[in-house]
C-alpha cells in the first residue's frame, strides 16, 4: 500500500475528517454483527417452540432500528470520506496547474500536451478513487473480516470457522498476482491514452492545414491506429479486472460449501444448534463484501498507484531556471548590455548564440536582423530568462538578468512572440490580458496604436467580438496587431517585438513603427524583423549569422558598409517599388 504512505501528508492534514469517517465505519461493522445473531436466536426459539409475539416484535423492531441507524451512519461516512477525496482531487489539480505554470519551455519540449491532459483528466481521478473508496475498502474489509471471524470462532465454533477459511490463501495469492499485472497494464493504458489525447490535440489545432493538403483520410487512419492501440491496452486491463470477481466468487462459494457441509455434520452431532448454523452462514455472507472489497481494493490501489507514479514523475521535475537566492526586486534602468554572451539550448551541444557583445542605452531601439535560423528569436527569449544561461553575460539596468526576480523581470518587459496566442475570449479581454483593470478607452487606444482600429469597426460586436480558439476567426495580421496592442497596453519599460510585423503590409508596418516611436519615447524597444524597413530607425542594428554578430551600426552606417544588410535592403526596396508600380 505504498500509495497510501505517499498520500500520508494529506491524510494527516485532514485527520479529523478521516478519523470520524473511519469511526463510523467501525461502528457500522460492529452493528452489522447483531442481525445474524438475532436471526439465529429466533430460529432456535422457533425450533424449541419458545418464540412469543413479544419476542418476535422486539426482534423486528431492533432490525428496523438498525436499518435506519446504518442508513444514517453510511451517509455520514460517505460524506466525510468521499468529501475528503474530492478535496484531494482539487488539491492535486491545483498543484498540477501551479507546477505547469512554473515550468520552462524545455519541459514542454519533453512533455506532450496530450499526456499532460491525460494526467489531469484520468490519473488524478484514479488517485482520488484510492483516497475515497480505497481507504473505505481497506479499513472496512480488514476490520469487518477480523471482527466477523472473531465472532464466528467465539460464539459458534472455531473448527467450523477454520474449515471455512481453507480456500482463503488462494484468494490472497490470486489477488496479489492480478494486482501486479493490473499495475503494469494500467500504466501502459494511461500512456496510450496520453498519446491519443496528443494526436487529437494536434489534429484539431492543425485542421486547416490538414484540409489544405487533403490529408483528412490519412489522419483518420492514423487516429484509428492510435485509438486501436489505446483500446487494446485498455482491454488488457479489463481482462485482468474481469478475473477478480469470478475468482473471489468461486473461492467464497467453496467456503460456503465447506461451511454448509461441515456445519450440517456438526448440527447432526449436536455440536452446534440449527440457529448457530443459520447465524454462521449469515456471518459467512457478511464476509462476501469484504472479500469482494479486498479484490476491488487491489484493483483501485494498483490503478491509483500507477496514476500517482505518472503524476509524481512529472511533479518532481524542476524548472531549468531558478530564481536567485536573494533576487534584486527592481532594475532601475532600461539599458541592455551583452558581454560575450553565448547560449546553447538544453540537450544540444552546438551554441545557437556565440560571443555576443553590444550595449543599448535607455530609450533606444535595437533592431535584430539576419537570415532564418540566425538566432534572432533566441536572443529575445534569452532576455526573458526562459532558459539557463551563463552568469554575468546579459544585463538590464546594470543588473545581471539571473539576479533579477522573475516578477521584476517580467513586469519590466512586454513581449510579442512570433507565435501569436489569442484566447477564446473577446478582443477586449485578449488585449487587457496583462492589465485586467484597463478601461475601455485604454484598450481602444492600444488597438489604435497597433493599427487595429479600422478593422475593429468591421466587427459587428466591436470589442466584445469573440476571436475563437487561438484567434481562429481572425487573419494573421489581425492576430499580430491584437498581440501588439496587448503588449502596448502594459506600457512596459522594455518592449520586444519578435518578428511581429511579418503579417502586415508595408504601409501598416510603417504606421505601427511611427506610433511606437512616438508613444515609446524614452523607453527601450527591441525589434526583430525580416523586412528591414521595420528597423531602419533603430539606434543600433545587429546583423546575425549562425549566432554571431557579423555587422552592427545604424541604418546609414550599415548601408555604407555595403554588406548583407545593404544588399538585402536594396533588394527589398526594389521589390516594393515593383509592387507599387503594379
UniProtKB/TrEMBL annotation:
<dbReference type="InterPro" id="IPR003439">
    <property type="entry name" value="ABC_transporter-like_ATP-bd"/>
</dbReference>
<feature type="transmembrane region" description="Helical">
    <location>
        <begin position="20"/>
        <end position="39"/>
    </location>
</feature>
<keyword id="KW-0067">ATP-binding</keyword>
<keyword id="KW-1003">Cell membrane</keyword>
<dbReference type="InterPro" id="IPR039421">
    <property type="entry name" value="Type_1_exporter"/>
</dbReference>
<keyword id="KW-0813">Transport</keyword>
<feature type="domain" description="ABC transmembrane type-1">
    <location>
        <begin position="20"/>
        <end position="303"/>
    </location>
</feature>
<feature type="transmembrane region" description="Helical">
    <location>
        <begin position="160"/>
        <end position="178"/>
    </location>
</feature>
<dbReference type="GO" id="GO:0005886">
    <property type="term" value="C:plasma membrane"/>
</dbReference>
<dbReference type="GO" id="GO:0016887">
    <property type="term" value="F:ATP hydrolysis activity"/>
</dbReference>
<dbReference type="InterPro" id="IPR036640">
    <property type="entry name" value="ABC1_TM_sf"/>
</dbReference>
<protein>
    <submittedName>
        <fullName>ATP-binding cassette domain-containing protein</fullName>
    </submittedName>
</protein>
<feature type="transmembrane region" description="Helical">
    <location>
        <begin position="280"/>
        <end position="301"/>
    </location>
</feature>
<dbReference type="Pfam" id="PF00005">
    <property type="entry name" value="ABC_tran"/>
</dbReference>
<keyword id="KW-1133">Transmembrane helix</keyword>
<dbReference type="InterPro" id="IPR027417">
    <property type="entry name" value="P-loop_NTPase"/>
</dbReference>
<dbReference type="GO" id="GO:0005524">
    <property type="term" value="F:ATP binding"/>
</dbReference>
<dbReference type="GO" id="GO:0015421">
    <property type="term" value="F:ABC-type oligopeptide transporter activity"/>
</dbReference>
<dbReference type="InterPro" id="IPR017871">
    <property type="entry name" value="ABC_transporter-like_CS"/>
</dbReference>
<dbReference type="InterPro" id="IPR011527">
    <property type="entry name" value="ABC1_TM_dom"/>
</dbReference>
<keyword id="KW-0472">Membrane</keyword>
<feature type="transmembrane region" description="Helical">
    <location>
        <begin position="135"/>
        <end position="154"/>
    </location>
</feature>
<feature type="domain" description="ABC transporter">
    <location>
        <begin position="336"/>
        <end position="571"/>
    </location>
</feature>
<feature type="transmembrane region" description="Helical">
    <location>
        <begin position="248"/>
        <end position="268"/>
    </location>
</feature>
<feature type="transmembrane region" description="Helical">
    <location>
        <begin position="59"/>
        <end position="77"/>
    </location>
</feature>
<keyword id="KW-0547">Nucleotide-binding</keyword>
<keyword id="KW-0812">Transmembrane</keyword>
<dbReference type="InterPro" id="IPR003593">
    <property type="entry name" value="AAA+_ATPase"/>
</dbReference>
<dbReference type="Pfam" id="PF00664">
    <property type="entry name" value="ABC_membrane"/>
</dbReference>
Amino acid at each position: 500500500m505504498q500509495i497510501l504512505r505517499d498520500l500520508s501528508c494529506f491524510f494527516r492534514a485532514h485527520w479529523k475528517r478521516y478519523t470520524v469517517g473511519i469511526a463510523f465505519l467501525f461502528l457500522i461493522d460492529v452493528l452489522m454483527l447483531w442481525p445474524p445473531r438475532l436471526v439465529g436466536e429466533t430460529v432456535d426459539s422457533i425450533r424449541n417452540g419458545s418464540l412469543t409475539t413479544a419476542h418476535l416484535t422486539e426482534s423486528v423492531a431492533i432490525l428496523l432500528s438498525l436499518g435506519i441507524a446504518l442508513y444514517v451512519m453510511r451517509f455520514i461516512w460517505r460524506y466525510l470520506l468521499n468529501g475528503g477525496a474530492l478535496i484531494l482531487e482539487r488539491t492535486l489539480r491545483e498543484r498540477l496547474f501551479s507546477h505547469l505554470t512554473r515550468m520552462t519551455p524545455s519541459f514542454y519540449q519533453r512533455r506532450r500536451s496530450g499526456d499532460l491532459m491525460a494526467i489531469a483528466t484520468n490519473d488524478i481521478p484514479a488517485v482520488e478513487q484510492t483516497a475515497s473508496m480505497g481507504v473505505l475498502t481497506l479499513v472496512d474489509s480488514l476490520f469487518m473480516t477480523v471482527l466477523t471471524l472473531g465472532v464466528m470462532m467465539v460464539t459458534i465454533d472455531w473448527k467450523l470457522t477454520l474449515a471455512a477459511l481453507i480456500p482463503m490463501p488462494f484468494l490472497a495469492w490470486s489477488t496479489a498476482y492480478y494486482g501486479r499485472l493490473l499495475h503494469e497494464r494500467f500504466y501502459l493504458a494511461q500512456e496510450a491514452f496520453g498519446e491519443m489525447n496528443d494526436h487529437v490535440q494536434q489534429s484539431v489545432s492543425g485542421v486547416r492545414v490538414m484540409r489544405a493538403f487533403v490529408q483528412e483520410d490519412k489522419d483518420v487512419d492514423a487516429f484509428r491506429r492510435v485509438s486501436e492501440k489505446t483500446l487494446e491496452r485498455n482491454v488488457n486491463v479489463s481482462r485482468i479486472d474481469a478475473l477478480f470477481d469470478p475468482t473471489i466468487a468461486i473461492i467464497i462459494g467453496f467456503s460456503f460449501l465447506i461451511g454448509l457441509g461441515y456445519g450440517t455434520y456438526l448440527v447432526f452431532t449436536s455440536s452446534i444448534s440449527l440457529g448457530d448454523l443459520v447465524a454462521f452462514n449469515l456471518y459467512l455472507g457478511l464476509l462476501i463484501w469484504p472479500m469482494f472489497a479486498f479484490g476491488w481494493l487491489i484493483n483501485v490501489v494498483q490503478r491509483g498507484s500507477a496514476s500517482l507514479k505518472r503524476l509524481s514523475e512529472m511533479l518532481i521535475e524542476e524548472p531549468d531556471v531558478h530564481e536567485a537566492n536573494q533576487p534584486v526586486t527592481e532594475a532601475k534602468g532600461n539599458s541592455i548590455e551583452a558581454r560575450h554572451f553565448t547560449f546553447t539550448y538544453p540537450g544540444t551541444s552546438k551554441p545557437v548564440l556565440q560571443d555576443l557583445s553590444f550595449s543599448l542605452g535607455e530609450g533606444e531601439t535595437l533592431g535584430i536582423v539576419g537570415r532564418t535560423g540566425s538566432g534572432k528569436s533566441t536572443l529575445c527569449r534569452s532576455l526573458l530568462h526562459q532558459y539557463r544561461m551563463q552568469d554575468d553575460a546579459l544585463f538590464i539596468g546594470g543588473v545581471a538578468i539571473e539576479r533579477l526576480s522573475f516578477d521584476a523581470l517580467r513586469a519590466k518587459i512586454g513581449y510579442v512572440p512570433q507565435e501569436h496566442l489569442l484566447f477564446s475570449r473577446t478582443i477586449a479581454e485578449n488585449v487587457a490580458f496583462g492589465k485586467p483593470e484597463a478601461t475601455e478607452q485604454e484598450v481602444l487606444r492600444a488597438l489604435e496604436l497597433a493599427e487595429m482600429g479600422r478593422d475593429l469597426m468591421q466587427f459587428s460586436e466591436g470589442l466584445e467580438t469573440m476571436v475563437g480558439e487561438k484567434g481562429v476567426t481572425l487573419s494573421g495580421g489581425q492576430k499580430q496587431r491584437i498581440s501588439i496592442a496587448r503588449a502596448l497596453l502594459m506600457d512596459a519599460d522594455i518592449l520586444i517585438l519578435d518578428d511581429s510585423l511579418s503579417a502586415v503590409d508595408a504601409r501598416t508596418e510603417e504606421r505601427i513603427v511611427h506610433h511606437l516611436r512616438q508613444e515609446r519615447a524614452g523607453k527601450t524597444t527591441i525589434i526583430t524583423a525580416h523586412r528591414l524597413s521595420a528597423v531602419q530607425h533603430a539606434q543600433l542594428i545587429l546583423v546575425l549569422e549562425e549566432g554571431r554578430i557579423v555587422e552592427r551600426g545604424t541604418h546609414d552606417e550599415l548601408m555604407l558598409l555595403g554588406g548583407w544588410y545593404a544588399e538585402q535592403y536594396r533588394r527589398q526596396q526594389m521589390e516594393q517599388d515593383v509592387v507599387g508600380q503594379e
